Description:
Layout: H1 38-43, E1 58-64, E2 70-76, H2 78-81, E3 86-90, E4 113-114, E5 120-126, H3 129-138, E6 140-145, E7 164-165, E8 169-170, E9 173-175, H4 178-184, E10 187-195, E11 207-213, E12 216-221, H5 226-236, E13 244-247, H6 263-275, E14 279-282, H7 288-291, E15 298-306, E16 312-324, E17 345-355, H8 368-386, H9 390-396, H10 414-425, E18 437-439, E19 442-454, E20 461-467, E21 474-478, H11 488-500, E22 507-510, H12 527-545, E23 549-553, H13 555-559, E24 567-579, E25 585-595, H14 602-621, E26 653-657, H15 676-679, H16 681-693, E27 699-700, H17 704-707
Parallel strand pairs: 1-14, 10-27, 12-13, 16-17, 21-22, 25-26
Antiparallel strand pairs: 1-5, 2-4, 2-6, 3-5, 7-8, 9-17, 10-15, 11-12, 11-14, 15-16, 18-19, 19-24, 20-21, 20-23, 24-25
Helix pairs in contact: 8-16, 11-12, 14-16
Amino acid sequence: xAVDDTTSQDRTTSRDRTGPGxxxxxxxxxxxxxxxxxxxxxxxxxxxxxxxxxxACVYGRPVPATVPHGSVTGIDDSEAMxxxxxxxxxxxxxAPRLGEPDDPILALLQSPQVPHRxxxxxxxxxxxxxxxxxxxxxxxxxxxxxxxxxxLRADHPGLYHPEEANGGYPADQETGDFDTEYAAAPHQxxxxxxxxxxxxxxxxxxxxxxxxxxxxxxxxxxxQGATLVGTTLAALFGLDPAQVxxxxxxxxGGFGSKGTPRPQAVLAAMAARHTGRAVKxxxxxxxxxxxxxxxxxxxxxxxxxxxxxxxxxxxxxDVLTHTASFKEFVEQAAVPSRVMYGAAGxxxxxxxxxxxxxxxxxxxxxxxxxxxxxLESAMDEVATALGIDPVELRLRNIPDREPDSGKPFSSHHLxxxxxxxxxxxxxxxxxPRPGTRRDGDLLLGTGVAAATYPVYVAPSTASVEVLGDGAxxxxxxxxxxxxxxxxxxxxxxxxxxxxxxxxxxxxxVDIGSSDLPAASVAGGSSGTASWGWAVHKAxxxxxxxxxxxxxxxxxxxxxxxxxxxxxxxxxxxxxVAVDAVTGEVRTRRLLGVFAAGxxxxxxxxxxxxxxxxxxxxxxxxxxxxxxxARLGGFVERDLAAYHVPAHADVPxxxxxxxxxxxxxxxxxxxxxxxxxxxxxTPAALANAVHHATGTRHRTLPxxxxxxxxxxxxxx
Length: 715
């Protein structure tokens, strides 16, 4: 391995010093502290965006386009405006003019063009939400419909190679000579894996409440980053950022769909300016698939060349996906193949086709989740063909350096995750022959997959202030972090308490407002590392200076990081039962073991790992969206049709981690953990289904209609 790390048990986790509070006892950082906001949430005291109701608040209901492509030719609002309590109908003809947005999805009600079904063409505003809904239904909208195309296919003539994929990665990359190495490989695999579109569907729908006070805009928004929403609204409405306050104190999930500003905040602010009243806009669940992003479908071709001992000589990963006609977003599904395994020749590429579909966006480990499903399924196919244990095959192909960049890894404990996971799961008892274990009509199988996720860190700002002057002073930490249910408030308080040398209850934390020191969005599993770095730096400077208040930023610190490849790694093991009569797949056990730097809160970390694995289970077995070729929209538009896992879908799920010390990350030593649990789970389950049935399925989700076809030769 590139780095010979020691475990955290081998190092001291608290300094041999006294801090302002002279704390004694166990370290605060790493302890399983309970969530600070837990009581407020279970008692209803925690207020979300839609629960802020300023005086004289009214309600907006957006109106989605009912054609898949074209333009609005006329809107008759006479019936809508005749309803008691009706206040206004905003359209492209009378809505406030906006500045040119960086993101085209925010050019709301600015033109008659309709790029896809579900695009908002009007906003009804009324005294009550019921009247606003009735107004939206009463509007008569005429369209000039144009031909549309919404289906991705491998031979689509519009496919092209973009310059970049999401995250700024080069779309196409090659190291070595893939063609030569693949042609000469003793064993070759050429397989294609397909994934349907997927949707985020957070429990809290996208909502915003906006009010203008003089020239100042206040917006309560369900967002993963109030700083970005604030600067975006300021640009759209021609304001100085100081004239905008965005509050995102509590957020009921986002999974990427709230990582960038979304229509609700802009529509609420427009309507509030137009009516002179506070306006609340809650996007209906059935409209979310069309306006807040989705994971684009992918067609992924994997070509692996291997020696007889299973070591790879060639790795090719080619991705086809779609984007919107008005905005390019390319799911970076081939990028994980530049990181995971060594080979003399590695080629990765992305092609994309613009279609008349909503703009794809971030969703639950974008790139890594679909890409690692294909790669880890292909690795399992190679292991089966060569008669090599799947765990052993992965161990034989772990690289010493990041294959794509040649950089040394800052830390790399994939091998430890695989071995520890195999021990805990009882992998040594596994019969490698597919289709051999049976329990009545149930075929039983086990599978494994590796996981990786990059370490992202963004510049952030934080302040810390001494409160009081008694024997045990308190400390106020301020940073515009966003807690999307991960426990960010608690972990940031732990970081501060550890650095200040005080008890946890001596630290107060303010987050979730753009009036606080600016911070990065909660996305890319980067939040704690980014915000925590700023909090740690502020607390250290306060302690060393002896002052009463300190404000810092980490822009210079982040830019000066050493030249290492930084990734979290993990291994997921799964056991499934497949009904030989119905084709239904039931998960019996899921185990994840992860290496993600220093674990800052054992309780919230375990929750995030398990939550991620549950999302991966949904991707593997239940979740899918379908585009209607004739009508142009998504078919599964609510939680009755779009199936997410419930507790009963995974009766036994567990997560563990390898304690690792990585000196090349950030002062607190943590890697992001919000998404690494997702990445390996779909392939582990798909590989377990193959082990159970003996048939390889290369399309997710593994629903009964697909899996049940194996008896008829399907796969």
